[in-house]
Amino acid sequence: MSRLAQLPGWLLTVVWILVPVVAISALVFALTGDDDGAADDGPPRIGSSGVDVQTAALQERRERAGIDDCAGLPTSDPADDGLPALSLPCLGGAGDVDLSTLEGPLVLNVWAQTCGPCRDEMPLFQQLHRAAEGLTVLGVDYLDLQPHLAIDFAERAGVTYPSVADVDDQLRSPLRLQSLPTTLFVDADGRVVATEVKEFTSYDELAATVERHLGVVG
Length: 218
Fold this sequence. Notes:
Blueprint: H1 3-6, H2 9-32, H3 56-65, E1 87-89, E2 96-98, E3 106-111, H4 116-131, E4 136-142, H5 147-156, E5 163-166, H6 172-175, E6 182-186, E7 192-196, H7 203-214
Parallel strand pairs: 3-4, 4-5
Antiparallel strand pairs: 1-2, 3-6, 6-7
Helix pairs in contact: 3-5
């Protein structure tokens, strides 16, 4: 008779419980290992992505696509009910943009190259950019860890207005972002007067919304 068979029943139960638990724990430890000081070869994590959206290669890619830099964006003193005081890097550009200093009237469209509705509506914002005098159109490439694909995405959409990049999810809380696409409307006094969480499906719809919120005719 084996020695296991001679053990009390309660002790056998404990053994049968502990053996798989110990084995699973050992497997998890082997897979994860001790990461103290080790390099992380996986994709960057949101919140500490370390993604550089302003490399020389990306700047060249943006210029080749005919997309404007953010340097020419009009600015003014921050408004009490304006955009948050967050500085975001210009996508494929040089320098950062303090959103709170952007001068209105302004349309801020939050998009991502993985967002199908964003792809469909972006040509409408380009049309608005060309048609509406005295109005600034700015994009926000949101949570995109592949900025070269974002620039390619904008180029295919025919976009020439600039975008900033939020790779670290800084805007979710202050803008109360729920889904994409999201568009914010900033009036001439720098106040955020409306937020539309929707896809615009026609230029007439977009132009009418801009006129309603900002009094600007596109």
